[in-house]
């Protein structure tokens, strides 16, 4: 339950009957078991996966998540990385927080903008449409 994975799926994995677990599933199990770094790395290797390297934060936004953002038409939603980088947002979020496309991608950090705004940058004004930092629009 702590890993957010069904008991049936975990039992199938333990018995070797389930599909090859994804990196996210293995990471969730390791967090739920509160494994130390060496133990976590061993579990990843046993699952046939490369252990996560220290200091790296995944900035990839899956298409399914972007579709979900599109559906939240009346709910301001933004997706942040573990360090607060704004990775994706919807139109309602732009209306509330301002248009993130006016900032350079390296400046799109929620905490940075709250505490260290750059006065030389244009003010962010509301704009429409879902956005993500890697898109041509933003």
Automatic annotation (TrEMBL):
Biased composition (Low complexity): 122-138
Pfam families per record: HTH_31, MLTR_LBD
InterPro entries per UniProt: Lambda_DNA-bd_dom_sf (IPR010982), MLTR_LBD (IPR041413)
Span list, region Disordered: 110-138
MmyB-like transcription regulator ligand binding domain: residues covered: 61-119
UniProt-listed PANTHER family: BLL4672 PROTEIN (PTHR35010:SF2), BLL4672 PROTEIN-RELATED (PTHR35010)
UniProt name for this protein: MmyB-like transcription regulator ligand binding domain-containing protein
């Amino acid at each position: 339950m702590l890993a957010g994975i069904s008991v049936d799926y975990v039992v199938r994995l333990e018995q070797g009957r389930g599909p090859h677990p994804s990196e996210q599933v293995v990471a969730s199990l390791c967090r739920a078991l509160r494994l130390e770094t060496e133990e976590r790395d061993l579990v990843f290797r046993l699952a046939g996966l490369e252990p996560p390297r220290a200091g790296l934060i995944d900035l990839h936004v899956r298409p399914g998540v972007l579709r979900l953002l599109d559906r939240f038409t009346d709910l301001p939603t933004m997706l942040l990385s573990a360090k607060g980088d704004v990775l994706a947002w919807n139109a309602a979020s732009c209306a509330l927080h301002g248009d993130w496309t006016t900032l350079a991608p390296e400046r799109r950090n929620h905490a940075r903008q709250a505490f260290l705004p750059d006065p030389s940058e244009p003010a962010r004004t509301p704009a429409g449409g879902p956005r993500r930092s890697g898109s041509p629009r933003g």
